[in-house]
Batch of 2 targets.
Target 1
Amino acid sequence: MSAKISFALLTMAALFNVPQTTFAQIPFGCQIAQSILDSLNTPDMQKKNRVQMLDAPIKDLFDCLSPFPGVKNLQGRIGPDSGQYTEQGVVRFALLLPVKKWNHKFIEVGCGGACRDYTNPFLALCPVHRGYACIITDMGSGRDDFSPQYHEFVNDWRRRINYGYRAAHVGAVVGKAIVKAYYDGQEPSKSLMMGCSAGGYEAMVEAQRFPWDFDGIVAIAPDIDEADIAMRKAWFFKNWEYLIEHAPDFKEVLHNAAIEQCGTKDLDKHRDYVENPMACASKFVDLSWLKCKPGQSTPCLRDDEHNKLLEHAQNLYRPITSRGQQISTPVLLPGSERSLPPEAWGFPTEGYDWADNWGTTFFRFMFRLGGQTTQCPAPYCDPFFPPDGTAPRDWNIWDFNFDEDYKRLGLGAVYTETNPDLRKFRDAGGKLMIVEGGADAAVFPWAGIDYYETVEKTMGGRVATQKFARLFVVPGMNHCTGGDGPFAIDYLTALEKWVEKGLPPGQEPKPGQERNDLIGAHLNLSWDDAVRHLKFPLDPAVYDLHHPGPDKSVKFTRPIYPYPQWAKYTGKVDKDRNKAENFESVGDDASALIALEQEWVEAIQKSDVKTLSTIFASTYVDTDETGQRADKAAVLKALKSGALKVLKIELSDMKPVIYADAAVVTGASVQRGTYKGRPLAERIVFTDTFIRTGKTWEAVRSQRTTAPRQ
């Protein structure tokens, strides 16, 4: 490096606050991306990005050889501060930029596990083939190797903060700034995020902590509460090891039992997965019926092995203390038994300590629950064990005390994304898709289901929540993808339609409205191939979604509906059980009826006479407190003329009661507005009667009565 070049770089660094990077630090196959660094430091860019860039200073930026033709590959580091070369607190990233075919959108893709090898395979998940500018970070893990997991975190509190919540956010900040600099000042029209497992965790953190970063988010198999999931894994392995040691074939016994007890007649029994495992979970925990009956030839439990095996098998489905107290969400869903590690994921069955890898390392190095070799300076030690070296150095996951240690998991709050208050994300216009695999035996989907149900309770109920956040439980899907179910799903297209066109995924559209169906396909691919090689939308020349069959590239397809709906076979098109068209949604009539009530309220408040004419009950009786009645025509006339103006209606106490193809909804409302210029404030009780034709509910009678004033 000549003195002139060195002096020029130092001068440029002084003028533009560019990191002073030496050639010795430049990665192989890369060069300093000086022109982009200069663009980031123009007065205009500094003025517009200064505040957020203070949170995400770029330490260095390199232009590297690209694995994709026509795509620029930028790699760099985001520090807690700029300048001095250090790995402490650093977040590494890779940013792919289409050179000519940018679609004017930005996406962040989450990584997985400890995120060490963050560019492989996760960089391949970037949808640059669809024109996206795409960034991925290492979550601040700071290493390229994957094992042992988490060990660098023990003495680096900044690394733990990066992993816990900072890395995805600073990745978004830096990614958008570089995109704007590279594309001559053009900002992304939409910003999205998608990730699975630890990447799903990142996505949930973004929705909760940084609700303004993204317009839409897909969080697949998110690690809901990293500390709690580590405990559930400890519980799982404690019981699973006993089962595989004493009854190696017990996995098949459990799986066959789940299909027999929970499967849909003449459907699941041919598919090896359960279409609606949530409906069966509560009854399936009681496995006493597995005990052998006289003369039984199918797999069962003999008397001499029954009690102990049964205890450990039942424990796979819910973690409890020795006193029977449940200490976390349930673990497995019925039908997921074949997805249990290690062979289901292609990992070694011998010579690999699953329990130590998945649980011990997290508690040792992220929680510092023992086994550390170096002390960390106060106050940055997590206090699960004292920092004076008194913790047992041989601590492992089998030492976890399920009667006591679960009470200490609050110390892992930095690794938690369980806040159900999503008002800021909703009010920012964000859209959230949470996806769980019904056969996921890695992060256990019950935690995600429980979180979503809590969101519904917090955000005003299911109908209000599903306007911006939806949960999808994919039957038979393993962790992130793969499995016996319809695991190949184009989530990105569904999210695009929701964010850009306001079309909720998996919802039956109104007449004349574009569909946004979420269709899952089962392909003959291993879990690893599905993760690394599938590109969406699926190539129709390779994967024919319209003509599935057992001997074809696409074995079968299924519609995926928002929880708690699920797909039921109807045979309404051509009786082919392999086609999604022959299934329809069932399981959420109550929400559909409440949605109709809210649609009526919104139309009244907008004086939308056209909509009201179609959804008003054919028989409508509105009785005021004096006993005077008004029918449908009178109310519509008053709204159309402006004599009646309803400014706000608040619904409460709604109770749907469903009788096959008829239903009654009772409830109350407080109505405020004006009538012929006079203030209007009244409480109304109502009873609405509906009938169902096919999948559609129609109001046939509505009786509303103004309650007497107190």
Target 2
Amino acid sequence: MINTVIIAVTVVLLVSTGALADSSKETTSSQTNAISTSPKESRTFVQPQDNSRQEPEPFLLVTPQENSVTINRRPEIRIDFTVPVDPDTVLLMIDGSDVSQLAIISAQEVVFRPFMVLPPGSHTVQIFVRGDNGAELSKSFSFYSRHGEIFQEAYSSNDLTAVYEAAVVRSHNKPTTPSNKVDANLRSETKIKSKEFSFGFNTNVRYLDQSLPLMSPLRKGADVVNYQLNLGYARDLTKVQASLGDVVINETTYTAMNLARRGVLLDFVYDAAYVRLFNVRSDQVMGLRDTGSILPQFSTDNNILGVAGGIKLFNNRVEAKVSYLSGGETAAGFNVAGPTTEKKGNVTGVQLNTDLFGNRMRTELEGGWSAYNPDTADVVGSTNSQAYRAKIGGFLEPASYELQYERVGSNFVTLGNQNGIIKDRETITARSGITMSTHSLTLSGMKQYDNLDLDPLKPRNTTYQGTLDYNCLSIQKFPFGVNYTKATSNSSHEPDSGGIITTTGMQTDTIGGRIAYSNGPLNISAMSSYSQQNDTGTALNNSTITTYSLSPSYSVQGLNVMTNFQLMQNNDHLTDVRTDTFTSSMDVRSLWLKNRLSIDVGSSYSQATNTINTTDSWNLTANSRIGYALSPFWEGSLKPSIALRGTYSHTTDRLNATTHNDAAIFLVLATATPFIF
């Protein structure tokens, strides 16, 4: 099936290429205005002026001509200077983006050719420069572009990258990294648009091979990692789009949110109303090999089927939407923690959002109803549950506020929210803050408890938390802030275990501070916090945690240095044992010889010890890379480079008298080839 898709895409590209064979020519149109003055009108001036000595226009847009239509995917933009200027002061902007660094600038002209495809439509060119007499000169031009005579938009943008690594030196220990590796990727984006219809195809094809086995889901050889085929129609208030491949579903919190799966998605939009249909796999897959048909299966055993609709009213100030999902889950897919037994269910969600007062008061109301069977092999059947959420917030200058109530039933389950929903919880949160020019203050609070149905086999845990945070920017080079958090948690309705009732409770007080120093390329930030935990339950496990952190950084053109040092001390009062954990990291990136030579170094170090010598270990990892770009010696779009990459790791456990070292130096050959047609 994938061969059929590739053949179809190739045919479309060949047709579009034929239609665009004459894409290099430009069709231009211009308007000329003439101004005439009669002799009678000229004699009415009290002081006649010689208009023949007017200052000349400092700029001339050579290509494309001003107010013209050009047929070109990447039209060359050339502006001539008609007066002496300082080329070092040129600022060139295309559609609001600064492209001066990518343009060829001289004292006579500015030439810029886009590296990427320029979208069809109207474009604005702005140029700013200082004349040789110090006067500031500026001009704005406009032109219109399209990609072909038949198609308004038609292009295929591709990036081919390939990296080969081979170990030239390595330690005698058992290697944890492959001795050689080949990794090649082709990223392709194709789009064709003509009037109401559009076609798009995006994909990433990868070839991977190495001396060591690969971790699943990666596999050796070539594979289509992901793809998406889009077909669209838009006319007046009507829009229709169909997507096949790797899609993302976003509906409501209690139904589908950030659901990235392989399947099909259909969107129908008319004015402010929309309807969406989707059918995706419940498991996460990668590539096309051994993943079954590229077309979705209409089965709720291992697919998620859904329908959603909504409408926006009063200039998008009110939005109402409803969604329904039904499906099942089998084994876990790639990178997703999934069930070990077959599950099946459905969920319905309704949401109403309002913003009637210009961000001063926004509201969100949502409800969800689920029927879910955690094991289709048993005879228990589905369990019904509900979830509700109400939120209000806004901004009343200089203050902001937010209040939310949420209740998620003890058996509520949704198939489509990959962020995860914690069930059997009732939560109330509140936040308010005030922000002024150099000061800000935020106050937040939360109450949460579980075991909503008071299951006699579990306790109910209740948590309260409040936070106060203050920031000060009065001293520009020394911004600082402080924060305090108070949290309490306790259990109730504990089950009776043979006459023994165990209670849990904890009171935590945390205070922290932060300060930074900024002076040009140098930035230093420091943070510290102290947390005291008092166990109010039967365990009486009190502790204190102190944390110190320092992060200096330095950044100039061609050099970037970032470091971090952190010490955490955990003192267990019950055992009178203190555990110290120290971590540090460093990252240095530099460019030399007009950005052709790159030298990068990175490292991390960690050490853990305690006062009774039952923990004493440390480890160090370091990476380095010296690379050189061969582009100046290679004509065309090919961008080859050569590099030496070094790795080193060391682990020592003094208590068990074990040490491990692993070091290697790799030769790296890489190339990047962008091509557009």
